[in-house]
């Protein structure tokens, strides 16, 4: 009987995992509280010149070289609070970047390892705080 229950639980978990979608970022605990990080645990930032719900990123040119966008993989689709915006990356090509609740997310080139928060307050960028 125990094997049947364990098998049913395993099957239901596997079925749920097949339908679960992966968000492009996750919430992590930090010395600054709960923040958004990418899949590698790198801190994400928002830019004060971006306006919620705008059609494109306000960070261009030299800005994008220092503050790379959280890029979406080819074929990614928006879902829930996650949307996609066009951005001209440092290579000059238009790509899609992720935005959460209408605000684009960026990384900082001077953050070298997961958990680094070296760009907060620089150039109008701030740690992307997660609300609970």
Domain tally: 1
Radius of gyration: 18 Å
Shape: globular
Parts with pLDDT < 50 across at least 5 consecutive residues: 1-21
Structural class: alpha+beta
Mean pLDDT: 85
Widest β-sheet, arrangement of strands: 4-5-6
Number of strands: 7
- The arrangement of helices and strands along the chain is HEEEHEEEE
**Distinct helical segment count:** 2
Helix share of residues?
A: 10-25%
Proportion of residues in extended strands: 15-25%
Q: Report how far the terminal alpha carbons are from each other.
A: 40 Å
Q: In this structure, how is the largest beta sheet organized?
A: 3 strands, antiparallel
Supply the key terms.
132 residues, alpha+beta, two-stranded antiparallel sheet, 2 helices, 7 strands, 24% strand
What's this entry about, in short?
The chain is α+β, with helices and mostly antiparallel strands and 132 residues long. It has helices at 2-19, 62-66; strands spanning 26-30, 33-37, 45-47, 82-88, 94-100, 103-104, 125-127.
How would you describe the overall organization of this protein?
The protein has one domain (23-127). Helix content is 17%, strand content 24%. The chain contains two helices and seven strands; from the N terminus they run αβββαββββ. The chain is α+β, with helices and mostly antiparallel strands. Mean pLDDT is 85; it is low at 1-21. Strand 5 and strand 6 form a beta hairpin. The chain is globular, with a radius of gyration of 18 Å.
């Amino acid at each position: 009987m125990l094997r049947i229950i364990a098998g049913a639980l395993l099957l239901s978990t596997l079925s749920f995992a097949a339908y679960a979608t992966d968000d492009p970022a996750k919430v992590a605990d930090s010395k600054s509280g709960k923040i958004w990080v990418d899949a590698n645990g790198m801190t994400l930032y928002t830019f004060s010149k971006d306006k919620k719900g705008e059609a494109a990123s306000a960070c261009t040119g030299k800005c994008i070289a220092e503050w790379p966008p959280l890029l979406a993989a080819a074929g990614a689709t928006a879902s829930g609070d996650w949307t996609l915006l066009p951005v001209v990356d440092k290579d000059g090509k238009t790509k899609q970047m992720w935005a959460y609740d209408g605000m684009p997310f960026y990384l900082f080139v001077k953050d070298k390892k997961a958990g680094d928060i070296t760009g907060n307050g620089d150039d109008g960028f701030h740690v992307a705080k997660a609300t609970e």
